[in-house]
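Sample entry (335 residues):
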Amino acid sequence: MSNYCYHIHVIRADNDQSLTLDSVAIAFQERAFLTYDVSSKLPKASLYGRQCIDACDYALIIIDDRYGTTQRTGVSQMHLSYLSAEAKLKPLLVLIKTHHQLINIEPPLTDFIRTVEKHAKYIHYYDEDTQMEQLLIRAHDEIIASQKITGSWTKTRERSPLANESTMLSPRRSSVSTRVSKDQNSCSTASTTASPSLSRPIVLTEIFSFQYTAHAYEGGNLTEVTMPIALTWLEILQALIKISPTFSSYGLQSSINRLIASKAENDVQQLMPKVHAVARCQIAQNDLNRLQRQLVAANWIELTTFGARVKQELWKLTFYAKKLSKEQQDFVSSP
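Predicted structure, serialized as tokens:
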């Protein structure tokens, strides 16, 4: 068994999976300490989930029989935590329950499974007959080896029935600590340190290529077209600076759509010379998700801490992005 102890955050529906979670606790008793998504009825559920995801070595999402309690935005805490793990570029291990064809599955759950299957890399399926402990250990070893995850803590000596569990582990990282909830496993009493942020610097003169759709009007007829476009990261940064101090993913999308609209008519005319108007320019959803992940990885945007009444993920520009914009402005205005 590895000498490392891992922090795994478990993403799941807040009204499902009791037996599956028991299997998770048993399988990881000597391998990891666990944190879990909490009920979305709690005002700080999303904030707690994001903090745990920030700190964990990897996230484990269990998709069982239910989608979970939906919030005002129409999505569940499980869905929000999945998006947060994706945005933070966390390794994601997925367990999906195989359902009998006669069982009616909630439409949101079906859509969510399709989304996860399309983007996740480490997916395992299970049913009532699956040996869950064996599956979990095998899947854990696979993602640890493939992603070269070294673990948050090292075990300093073999477990002793009389030993204080907190003396068994020593942290491998020295950054700001985040207290995690206790779990019934040997690593649970320790606090975990936040993982160092994964930084992928962006060169402002390089381009981000993606696709967008638009309504093109030609001779009284409307045609929806799909077009490629390439924006420099400097153009994207300049657009971000103009957004409100805090913004949702929809606000980010609207900002990029406005940037597309300033170029779209000229681009579409290359395809349709007689076009007389172009409207409803929208970046493709997959490309928007890809852009958001890259902005997070480059430390240009970060999730905000929000209050109990806010029911959606809100973002803000980082100090680094604002500094980068100011330096660019100073360079342009200098003689």
